[in-house]
Structure formats: C-alpha cells, structure tokens
Write a structure and sequence with these properties.
The radius of gyration is 13 Å and the shape is globular. A five-stranded antiparallel β-sheet has the order 5-4-3-7-6, with helices on one face. A two-stranded antiparallel ribbon has the order 1-2. A hairpin with a 3-residue loop joins strand 1 and strand 2. It is built from one helix and seven strands; from the N terminus they run βββββαββ. It is mostly beta strands. It is 13% helix and 43% strand.
C-alpha cells in the first residue's frame, strides 16, 4: 500500500504506510492513530483534517478507510466481523 506523509504539529512529519493504520480515534480537537504492532501516535489535529489528508494522498487507490460514527476511521483490511447487535 501507499505511504502517507502527515504533518503533525509545527515541525513534525510522520511517514506511515496506509496498510499499517488499524484505526484512528477522534478525541475532540485531536486524534489518536493506532498502528499495527501496538503503536499509538497522537495527532494534533481533528478527524476532518485526517480525512482530508488521506483523501488527497490516496485518491488513486481503492477505498481503504471508512468513517464509523463520530469518533472512528477504520481501515477496511482489519475488519473481519460486523455484529450490529453489540
């Protein structure tokens, strides 16, 4: 999968493969990005900005992420079951 470059704050750049992102959780004006391998990265911007970043950088790729509710952006490759009862 393609690599994404994220400007996190004033002077920090993060380069991550889109396939390594399991999900992103919005927490008000900030987000937490959860990566394969158990890593967590704090992002200093809101959910809408993350959606904008991945939309621009992954526009030529097939859809990889879906928005679930107000708080989550999930990588479709990591979904193995949906149980609407729970």
């Amino acid at each position: 999968m393609k690599e994404i470059i994220i400007q996190n704050g004033a002077g920090e750049l993060i380069k991550v493969r889109s396939s390594d992102i399991i999900y992103v959780e919005a927490e008000g004006n900030y987000c937490s990005m959860y990566l394969a391998g158990g890593f967590k990265q704090q992002l200093w911007f809101n959910r809408q900005r993350f959606i904008s970043i991945i939309s621009k950088q992954l526009r030529d790729e097939k859809p990889t992420f879906i928005v679930v509710g107000r708080s989550y952006i999930i990588n479709l490759a990591y979904i193995f079951r949906i149980n609407p009862v729970q």
